[in-house]
Design brief:
- The complex is a heterodimer.
- Chain A is of the alpha+beta class.
- Among the domains of chain A are: about 1-110, no CATH class; about 195-415, Jelly Rolls; about 425-495, no CATH class; about 695-760 and about 770-805, no CATH class; about 805-865.
- Chain A contains 34 helices and 18 strands.
- The longest helix of chain A is centred in the first third of the chain and has 22 residues, at about 90-110.
- Chain B folds into two domains: about 1-120; about 135-280, Leucine-rich repeat, LRR (right-handed beta-alpha superhelix).
- Chain B contains twelve helices and ten strands.
- Chain B has helices spanning about 1-15, 25-35, 50-55, 75-80, 105-110, 125-135, 150-155, 170-180, 195-200, 215-220, 240-245, 260-270, and strands at about 40, 60-65, 95, 115, 140, 180-185, 205, 230, 250-255, 275.
- Classes of the chains: A alpha+beta, B alpha/beta.
- Chain B: Keywords: Signal.
- Chain A: Keywords: Signal.
- Chain A: It comes from Chthoniobacter flavus Ellin428.
């Protein structure tokens, strides 16, 4: 029945496709091929080993692939070649429509279309669903931390066929569920608010400089220690650089909001302190304020008797740590800093100086030793040498006027829970005290929300039986009910999204929409509209899609779509060479690059800008560090930080929303020339398409073909050797690739791959502009010219002009990516009419991003399995 | 019992690397030097016989004899046979308690091939010893000197600084490559122009933190120095001295200044690399 229904639907599609091309005919395609293809692709010439002469114009299973290839070549303007007579646009369009209709007609009745299958929630979806289902503030808790990575198709972790479930993952589900329920259910009394007034030293048990500073005030100065000094960055330090609050090392006793106040002062920002003279990047930058950050830390799972490990964990970067707040500190004058942050039970705050000098390999210490005569006055030198005589090397920083933070007081108060029990508990049990007799009702209500659809009583009955059995075994009702909650969260109905009918029902549409745009479950309103049977109406669906896109939860769409489409997830996986690109680490450029692209996309989405701006623009969103990388005066950014930007909030532009650190702020900045505009000038893209050491036009070319032009090249044949860099430095990569293309087999792909890659050659492996290669100690000018289709270009600006001239192809690529992400399956030829409809509807307005997304959700294929 | 106690003392001393007796017999010295490495600290020793010195000279490591206030020529000659260390930046014999050295003692010490420290020496008039010190690697700190003749200054100024130990790769090697000569005089409170002119020929860091005042003519002689001049004993800088210092071609460190007149500041404004207290940097 289901197959018959699907065939009927596809047959309708078949007719619709034909109706759209009523004026076209098979003869038109034949004429088109005869006029524009057969000169080269007849049996005699057989160019590219491809002949159309013997190809029947009756499309069948045997020739459909070849005809599809013909259609794609015509659509992409690859054929006829630029130096041959061109069809008129009308002729081309007619041929495209006719061929497409024939292909769809052929595929529909005879081929089992690849339908969206049962889809497991991927990691992001699982985490965000738990968050929204229980209104949990996940804080430092990531229930998916131990889950294996999800397989991706076309960059997206949403293809049901690839989202496999292993026995390992099943065990992780069980463990995660235990933790989730423990965090959500609170039968215990409201935790009392506690207050900690902390005085220096805050991290007494940390070895090193702070110990010496404490000893000095106790034994030499004989006065209460007035402050604790933080003099090194929190990264690149063998001593860790994180300063835990010792009185809270066991972690806060209960999860909740905590009010933290810190009295701190920045000192010696402009001191005579230039580590550049000591052969390594200084880490600190005197032109920006000294910053104090608050990070989370935990010692959970560490043997408290193992002091060495405890100290290491407390003072070093921790997996999954969160930056709670960051402040720009005023110079020379203690000030109170304030924040309200979420801390999970067992976690504690740690102080750090993120833009401080780095002490990797003890270089800060060595710097002090070597430069003590130029950095210290007489008294400081005498004290320093007394310490050195005692062998107290780590005391050295105390006597130097290196940039530093003096922290004199810390106050922590919490948990400040306004309501008790928390929302997660009330969502499950309501406002009344729980009694065993309510188990049915509680479980049914919870399952309805967790499974994102109405639930029949018989579906919950086995779970109720489980709870009753636990009660009979002696468990208290409050404990036994938790077994039931866990069972609901481990059920396939929670873990999988099943779309049962060929045409999705309203609840399935609600889930498809919310997982597409939020990576999470539908909210109450969406489920309500599903219950009312409204969501299958395109107008309602568009309205709801618009609402979801305007919600902060759409951040998940931005991140997941960028990870899939642009491969942003790969940024940092080929870490740039630390010696060649020290600023990448010193300036935390990876995070800045990611933020730039995210802000760019977000602003375009919220202002419904044209997708042409992905290809070229005269602005971007950068911070001071990226400005420096791009050769823009950081003062331009400083002047623009804080100015309102349409489509973005003030919080969007300053990544650390708690605290107050305008020095980290991003601003919309007008670019001085066209080189940087659009995605192809953004450092994120240029870095993730390099190998960390050098650039490869092949990697960048393939990336452009896949993600901008939608023309992924075939994988290289197995017997073709990799192009090794010319370590003698005599040849440029262009010379090498030209030789490579001399081979006809290589040329068939590389004539498409190399030109886009060459266009970006004027950007190095982290996106810095370069006009020259340094080869064999000589500067060789970079040649970034090439040809895209019929258009020749001289450089990256010309390349972008060429892309813009044919932005239809880019629009198709983008829409296909959106649909792959939304539908959770690969596209096939029968999706073409829907894609064409989206494109033709959006084209007159210049392909606006938000419109394209909404059109995808309105499309009939969005409502089909 | 006594033997046991002595053995215990020696054993403790061996483990701790320090020895707490004022005198030492050859036999005790033999036990101390056998099979040990690192620093042998005998800082409580007040006197050293030539015999004991000869035994100690066989020690394969740094000898710290900072308690000695006098040293006979014979003992010095014996000590001078101590093997020089190949380690970068490590002194071989520390004699930082010696206040005076007789010419013969100085001549004997001058034959030593390694590095000797004499941080408390009040006068240095032995040319051979000065030449020996100038040849040493590591910092040359003569913090006890209260006077310095132009002749001795000229010799000391030939010091070339750290000997680069090519056997040590990595960071240590790069540091060594870049370590310059350091001449340090913490107790020279006055400096004649001729001595200043001699010291100005040194290439490296010249630390004159003992100077509490600097005459313009001495300043004028010093500025021919091509390295770093450290004058952290100066709390004020008269304008004429500032003007004399201004042409100094490289780093000038004046971290001890408490006051700086506008005229002096103006004189120094054009200096390419001046290090002042933070209060004067803005």
């Amino acid at each position: 029945m289901a197959v018959r229904g699907r065939r009927a639907l596809l047959a309708a599609l078949h007719f619709a496709a034909f109706a759209a091309v009523a004026s076209a005919s098979a003869a038109e395609v034949k004429d088109f091929v005869s006029d524009h293809c057969l000169d080269c692709h007849d049996n005699a010439t057989h160019k590219g080993k491809f002949s159309l002469e013997g190809l029947s114009d009756q499309i069948d299973d045997g020739n459909a692939k070849q005809w599809l290839k013909v259609l794609e070549q015509i659509e992409r303007r690859n054929m006829p070649p630029a130096d041959e007579d061109q069809p008129t646009p009308a002729e081309r369009h007619a041929a495209e429509l006719t061929l497409e209709a024939k292909l769809v007609a052929q595929a529909s009745p005879h081929t089992e279309r690849r339908a969206t299958m049962l889809r497991r929630l991927n990691r992001v979806e699982y985490r965000d669903t738990i968050r929204d289902l229980l209104q949990l503030n996940l804080g430092s808790f990531d229930p998916t931390r131990e889950f294996p990575d999800d397989n991706r198709v076309h960059g997206f972790p949403s293809d049901g066929e690839k989202l496999v479930t292993s026995s390992f993952l099943l065990r992780q589900y069980l463990e995660a569920t235990d933790q989730i329920v423990a965090r959500a259910v609170h039968f215990e009394p409201k935790p009392a608010v506690q207050r900690w007034d902390l005085k220096p030293p805050f991290d007494r048990t940390t070895l090193g400089f702070n110990y010496s500073e404490t000893a000095y005030f106790r034994t030499v100065a004989k006065q209460p220690q007035p402050y604790q000094t933080i003099y090194e960055a929190a990264s690149g330090s063998p001593k860790g650089g994180y300063h835990p609050l010792d009185d809270l090392r066991a972690g806060v006793p209960a999860s909740g909001w905590y009010h933290i106040r810190i009295r701190a002062e920045a000192k010696f920002r402009h001191a005579d302190f230039d580590l550049k003279k000591f052969h390594f990047p200084p880490g600190n930058d005197p032109t920006e304020p000294i910053r104090l950050s608050l990070f989370t830390g935990t010692l959970e799972g560490i043997d408290p008797e193992n002091k060495e490990i405890v100290n290491y964990a407390a003072t070093h970067q921790q997996l999954g740590e969160r930056q709670l707040a960051t402040w720009d500190l005023p110079d020379d004058g203690a000030t109170w800093l304030d924040c309200r942050v979420w801390l999970d039970r067992g976690y504690f705050p740690r102080l750090a100086y993120p833009n401080g000098p780095t002490d990797a390999n003890n270089r800060l210490h060595h710097y002090f030793v070597e430069n003590r005569y130029t950095l210290l006055n007489k008294e400081q030198l005498a004290r320093y040498e007394q310490d050195a005589l005692r062998g107290d090397n780590y005391n050295a920083p105390m006597w130097f006027e290196s940039p530093r933070i003096l922290v004199s007081q810390v106050e922590v108060e919490g948990p400040l829970n306004e309501a008790w029990p928390p929302a997660s508990h009330r969502l499950i049990f309501g406002d009344k005290p729980y009694q065993s007799s309510a188990a049915d009702e509680v479980l049914h209500g919870f399952a309805t929300r967790a499974w994102r659809r109405p639930v029949e009583a018989n579906e919950v009955r086995p779970i109720v039986t489980l709870v009753r059995a636990a009660e009979k075994a002696g468990q208290k009702p409050e404990v036994a009910i938790q077994q039931g909650l866990k069972a609901i969260l481990c059920a396939p109905e929670f873990l999988y999204r099943e779309e049962k009918s060929e045409t999705l029902n309203d609840y399935e549409i609600a889930s498809r929409l919310s997982y597409f745009l939020w990576s999470s479950m539908p909210d109450e309103r969406l489920l309500r509209r599903a219950a009312a049977g409204e969501l299958h109406r395109p107008k309602v669906l568009r309205e709801e899609a618009g609402r979801l896109l305007s919600d902060p939860r759409a951040d998940a769409f931005i991140d997941e779509f960028l990870n899939g489409w642009l491969a942003m997830r790969k940024l940092g996986t080929m870490a740039p060479d630390v010696n060649k690109f020290a600023e990448y680490y010193r300036d935390d450029l990876e995070a800045a690059m990611r933020t730039e692209t995210r802000l760019y996309f977000r602003q375009l989405l919220h202002t419904n800008g044209s997708i042409d701006l992905f290809l070229d623009s005269d602005y971007s969103f950068i911070n001071r560090k990226l400005a420096r990388l791009y050769g823009i005066d950081p003062k331009v950014v400083e002047a623009a930080v804080g100015q309102p930007v349409e489509g973005l909030t003030a919080q969007d532009l300053v990544p650390d929303s708690e605290g107050h650190a305008p020095s980290l702020g991003f601003a919309r900045v007008k670019l001085p020339d066209r080189r940087r505009g659009g995605l192809l000038g953004q450092a994120s893209i240029l870095t993730l398409t390099a190998n960390g050491v050098d650039t490869s036009p092949v990697i960048r070319g393939v990336w452009i073909l896949e993600n901008i032009l939608g023309e992924p090249p075939a994988p290289p044949p197995p017997d073709v050797p990799v192009i090794e860099p010319d370590i003698r430095g005599a040849k440029t990569i262009r010379d090498q690739l030209e030789k490579h293309r001399a081979n006809a087999t290589c040329r068939s792909c590389h004539h498409l791959i190399d030109p886009p890659g060459f266009a970006l050659e004027t950007f190095d492996a982290i996106g810095r502009w370069r006009g020259h290669y340094v080869k064999a100690n000589a500067a060789v000018p970079v040649d970034s010219s090439g040809q895209l289709g019929a258009t020749e270009f001289k450089d990256v600006s010309g390349f972008k002009t060429a892309l813009l001239q044919d932005h239809d192809q880019f629009a198709r690529c983008l829409v296909e990516k959106l649909l792959i992400h939304a539908l959770g399956r690969e596209l096939d030829v029968t999706d073409r009419p829907a894609i064409r409809h989206i494109l033709e509807t959006a084209a007159p307005d210049g392909y606006r991003l938000r419109d394209l997304i909404l059109l995808c959700t309105e499309s009939d294929i969005f409502r089909r399995k | 019992m006594k033997t046991t106690l002595a053995a215990l003392v020696v054993t403790l001393a061996m483990f701790g690397g320090a020895f707490a007796q004022e005198n030492l017999t050859s036999a005790q010295a033999e036990k101390l030097v056998t099979g040990k490495k690192g620093t042998l600290a005998l800082n409580q020793l007040k006197s050293l016989s030539p015999e004991v010195a000869a035994v100690l000279a066989r020690y394969d490591g740094e000898l710290s004899l900072d308690g000695l206030e006098t040293l006979s020529p014979e003992a010095a000659a014996a000590l001078a046979r101590h093997k020089a260390s190949a380690r970068f930046g490590v002194a071989d014999i520390l004699l930082d308690g010696l206040l005076q050295i007789a010419p013969d003692t100085a001549a004997a010490l001058a034959t030593h091939q390694g590095a000797i420290t004499l941080k408390s020496l009040r006068t240095l008039d032995s040319l051979p010893l000065a030449q020996k010190l100038a040849r040493q690697w590591g910092e040359l700190q003569l913090n006890g000197l209260t006077t310095l003749t132009p002749e001795i200054a000229a010799v000391l100024a030939t010091n070339e600084g750290v000997l680069v130990d090519r056997t040590r790769p990595g960071v240590e090697q790069r540091r060594a490559d870049h370590a310059a000569s350091v001449l340090r005089f913490d107790n020279l409170t006055t400096l004649a122009p001729a001595t200043a002119a001699a010291l100005a020929k040194q290439k490296g860091v010249l630390v004159l933190n003992g100077l509490t005042a600097l005459a313009p003519d001495t300043a004028a002689a010093l500025v021919k120095h091509e390295g770093t001049i450290v004058l952290n004993g100066l709390t004020t800088l008269p304008a004429d001295t500032a003007k004399a210092l201004a042409p100094c071609p490289s780093a000038l460190v004046l971290k001890g200044l408490i006051s700086l007149s506008a005229e002096s500041r103006a004189a120094l404004r054009g200096h390419p690399d001046i290090r002042l207290p933070e209060a004067f940097q803005k």
